[in-house]
């Protein structure tokens, strides 16, 4: 039988694309997200997928997800921590609740799930991939929460990679740039409405403003995840990989 992967935030966008790509490679997939209806839609696209609707902000959810994966497939080889979105906006307008919610899912949810799955990953000499974001390396004024959360996730990746060397678990992170997800579509639509131009014109303006090759597709990130967790990518350990069309300009 093939390997087993847990993919969080799997109901749409990058998470859905990762789950579909891993399944195409013969991986048995456990899908997790909060939106049961959307999650069931993805599960219907993947033969044998196991869908678990949970809010990973709740401390008990990590154990429930890991238990569900073990009950369904008996092992965990791959963990993709993809769930979590953070609120954009001016610093003075971001509330205490906005900050707490930003860390609750994307950072603490990933930490809890990784800790709970770790014994199973050790047993399988498995892989962890954290989907962070370029804001963790190049913060911006409108992305104070997201940049801080992603920076914490990247630091966590580096720390855990050292533990992974000892325990035989591969740990890496991927930083997506501007990817055509529902969230980006909403941003582009808002910009188009604000400026009176079309959505595709707004997309071209974003590419020009960031001096990048193009907007990314969820499948771009999914293909990279498949490489990282595959045999060809096994020498990667503690890597923080920017996949952003050249948006990150720092060394």
Q: Could you characterize the architecture of this molecule?
A:
By secondary structure, the chain is α/β, with parallel strands linked by helices. It has helices spanning 13-24, 36-45, 61-73, 96-124, 144-167, 182-195, 199-210, 218-229; strands at residues 4-8, 28-33, 50-53, 78-81, 127-131, 170-176, 240-243. Strands 3-2-1-4-5-6-7 form a seven-stranded parallel beta sheet, sandwiched between helices. Helix 3 runs parallel beside helix 4.
Structural classification: alpha/beta
How big is the Rg? Answer: 18 Å
CATH topology, which one?
Rossmann fold
The first-level CATH class is given as: Alpha Beta
The CATH architecture would be: 3-Layer(aba) Sandwich
Largest sheet: 7 strands, parallel
Question: Averaging pLDDT over every residue, what do you get?
Answer: 96
Count the domains.
1
Which characteristics define this entry?
251 residues; alpha/beta; Rossmann fold; seven-stranded parallel sheet; 7 strands; globular
């Amino acid at each position: 039988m093939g390997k087993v992967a847990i993919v969080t935030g799997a109901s749409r966008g990058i998470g859905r694309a990762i789950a579909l790509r891993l399944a195409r490679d013969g991986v048995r997939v456990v899908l997790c997200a909060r939106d049961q209806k959307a999650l069931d839609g993805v599960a219907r696209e993947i033969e044998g997928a196991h869908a678990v609707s949970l809010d990973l902000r709740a401390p008990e959810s990590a154990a429930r997800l890991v238990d569900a994966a073990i009950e369904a497939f008996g092992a965990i080889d791959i963990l993709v921590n993809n769930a979590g979105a953070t609120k954009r906006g001016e610093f003075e307008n971001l509330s205490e609740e906005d900050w707490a919610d930003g860390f609750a899912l994307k950072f603490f949810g990933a930490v809890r799930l990784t800790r709970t799955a770790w014994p199973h990953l050790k047993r399988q000499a498995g892989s962890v991939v954290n989907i962070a974001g370029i804001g963790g390396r190049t913060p911006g004024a409108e992305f104070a929460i997201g940049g801080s959360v992603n920076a914490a996730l990247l630091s966590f990746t580096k720390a855990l990679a050292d533990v992974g060397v000892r325990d035989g678990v591969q740990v890496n992170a991927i930083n997506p740039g501007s990817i055509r997800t529902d969230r980006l579509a909403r941003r582009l639509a808002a910009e188009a409405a604000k400026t009176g131009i079309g959505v595709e014109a707004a997309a071209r303006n974003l590419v020009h403003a960031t001096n990048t090759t193009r907007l990314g597709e969820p499948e771009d990130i999914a293909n990279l995840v498949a490489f990282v967790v595959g045999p060809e990518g096994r020498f990667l350990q503690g890597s923080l990989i920017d996949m952003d069309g050249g948006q990150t300009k720092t060394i």
